[in-house]
């Protein structure tokens, strides 16, 4: 006697179709299902005033379907039609999910940020929503493809697919002949929109990243100044400059910026000098961190060029200042490759770390140890915080810093309430305030003649505004929340110099500046005379009682 199963999964039916029909169907579905964001933005930006404009608007999705068909056909020459369809569909689904859920756009710099992310940071993005969607995106097309049987022979498939590609090329030529001026005019003014075309834009960005990273001809390293020197005042005194590179801190959530919550009470008590109008160089760490230390301005910044020439740390070290970098984040993104550097390794026994990351309080300990062990008179210590790095904001502060509740104790932040998400993020800012306050206390009692601290965040963060989360949006389209960053300055000088008074502060704190100024501010703060120095970019030159202002009175060779 056989036992019938109580429950049986329904059998997935088999399908029969022609290869070319499947190719066209999947191309149409990919464009209209996974390019909703692009199509919505495109149609909202088109000015419809004639029948020609209507035809132009309708030609764009048709053009995209043709390109998707051609792309899949080309890929099928290498891996076969089934696998080519599965790869394109799954990749498009995953890219579309990231774009629609977080507002992520996969341009070349976002790809750089992804490829340069360490495993700990990458796993912080993994949650049940991502896993579930990823499994569906991969398994569904695989199962369906395995159940499809082609009606035509291999020879017929080759002929039909070739014919469709020929028609596709003719279609592209026809669209170009009829609407070339429209395409050129629209996408010249809306260039950033092309980064939303899924998955073509992501493929293009991946190709450009791989090309520029692995297949670009080696470039000789360019030394911007072979013989920088220390200012006489610095050379005859002891100095310690601490630069803190913040992570994902947006200016409008700083109490110092006017935010109604007490997110920076320690810094407020220290009477730090706050710069209220500062723009980042990029919207992701992989761009902003190397850019702020580079001589290149944001408009001319290129990762490859910056990587093969001096940055601010190189010049400062060459002048005789001891330079060190301590990292509690993913990495220094190449900035510290020629100076001594140390990366914090999680140690659960210390009480300051969990399994994967450490709280930024470890940087306070690092400052104490550095002061104890370094006997050089002039020092620059750069601290790279983990700050407000998302989406696991709740892991950036200990339980004692859950000041604003309820907070969002999960990484799929788009599923948290707006109140909980804001509370969690504000807790990270409050913890950054605590850490900076502790570092200032250490500097006060260091016994060093002149100590100073400069803090600036690498970029900001979106917290659900307009459906955007996290960061990395193309700069031209990025909201202010991702580009307006906090910057502040604190100093403790010898008694001969009273420091920055309030009248002086008013001369520079409200300046409109950016990461482009950091290079010259660092050279000014450390007293380095260099032909690479541009005094007009040093925001402290307006203040004759800051250390950098004092030093600006000395003759400094400026760049030609």
UniProtKB/TrEMBL annotation:
Alphabetic keyword roster: Cell inner membrane, Cell membrane, Membrane, Transferase, Transmembrane, Transmembrane helix
GO BP terms, alphabetized: lipopolysaccharide core region biosynthetic process
Example of a GO cellular component annotation carried by this entry: plasma membrane
Location of the Phosphoethanolamine transferase N-terminal domain: 65-213
Main location: membrane
Ranges that cross the membrane: 20-43, 55-78, 85-106, 126-146, 158-180
Residues covered by the Sulfatase N-terminal domain: 241-528
UniProt protein name: Phosphoethanolamine transferase
Species this chain originates from: Alteromonas alba
Upper classification of the organism: Bacteria, Pseudomonadati, Pseudomonadota, Gammaproteobacteria, Alteromonadales
């Amino acid at each position: 006697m056989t036992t019938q199963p109580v429950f049986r999964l329904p059998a997935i039916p088999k399908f029969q179709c022609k290869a070319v029909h499947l190719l066209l169907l999947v191309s149409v579905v990919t464009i209209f299902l996974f390019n909703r964001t692009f199509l919505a933005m495109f149609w909202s930006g088109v000015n419809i005033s004639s029948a020609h404009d209507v035809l132009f608007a309708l030609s764009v999705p048709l053009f995209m379907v043709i390109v998707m068909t051609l792309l899949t056909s080309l890929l099928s020459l290498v891996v076969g039609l089934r696998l080519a369809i599965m790869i394109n569909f799954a990749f498009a689904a995953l890219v579309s999910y990231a774009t629609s859920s977080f507002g992520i756009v996969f341009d070349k710099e976002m790809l750089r940020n992804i490829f340069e992310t360490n495993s700990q940071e990458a796993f912080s993005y993994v949650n049940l929503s991502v896993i579930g969607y990823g499994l569906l995106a991969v398994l569904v097309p695989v199962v369906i493809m395995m159940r499809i049987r082609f009606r035509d022979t291999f020879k017929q498939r080759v002929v039909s697919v070739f014919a469709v590609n020929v028609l596709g090329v003719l279609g592209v030529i026809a669209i170009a002949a009829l609407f070339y001026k429209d395409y050129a005019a629209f996408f010249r003014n809306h260039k950033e929109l092309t980064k939303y075309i899924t998955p073509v834009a992501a493929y293009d960005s991946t190709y450009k990243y791989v090309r520029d990273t692995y297949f670009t001809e080696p470039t000789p390293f360019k030394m911007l100044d072979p013989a920088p020197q220390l200012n006489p005042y610095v050379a005859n005194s002891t100095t310690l400059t601490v630069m803190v590179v913040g992570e994902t801190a947006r200016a409008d959530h700083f109490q110092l910026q006017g935010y109604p919550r007490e997110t920076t009470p320690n810094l407020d008590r220290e009477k730090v000098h706050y710069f209220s109008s500062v723009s980042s160089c990029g919207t992701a760490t992989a761009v902003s961190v190397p850019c702020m230390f580079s001589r290149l301005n944001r408009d001319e910044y290129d990762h490859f060029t910056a990587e093969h020439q001096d940055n601010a740390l190189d010049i400062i070290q060459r002048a005789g200042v001891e330079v060190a970098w301590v990292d509690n984040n993913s990495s220094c993104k190449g900035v510290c490759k020629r100076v001594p550097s140390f990366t914090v390794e999680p140690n659960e026994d210390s009480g300051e770390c969990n399994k994967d990351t450490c709280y930024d309080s470890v940087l306070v300990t690092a400052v104490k140890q550095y002061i104890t062990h370094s006997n050089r008179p002039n020092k620059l210590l750069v601290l790279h915080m983990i700050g407000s790095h998302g989406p696991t904001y709740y892991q950036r502060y200990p339980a004692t810093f859950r000041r604003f509740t309820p907070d969002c104790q999960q990484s799929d932040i788009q599923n948290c309430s707006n109140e909980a998400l804001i509370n969690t993020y504000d807790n990270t800012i409050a913890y950054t305030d605590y850490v900076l306050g502790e570092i200032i206390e250490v500097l006060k009692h260091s016994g060093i003649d002149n100590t100073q601290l400069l803090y600036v965040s690498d970029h900001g963060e979106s917290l659900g505004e307009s459906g955007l989360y996290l960061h990395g949006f193309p700069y031209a389209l990025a909201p202010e929340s991702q580009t307006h960053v906090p910057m502040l300055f604190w100093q403790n000088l010898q008694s001969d110099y009273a420091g920055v008074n309030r009248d002086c502060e008013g001369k520079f704190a409200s300046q409109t500046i950016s990461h482009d100024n950091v290079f010259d501010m660092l050279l000014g703060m450390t007293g380095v005379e260099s032909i690479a120095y541009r005094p007009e970019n040093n925001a402290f030159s307006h203040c004759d009682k800051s250390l950098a202002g004092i030093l600006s009175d000395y003759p400094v060779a400026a760049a030609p």
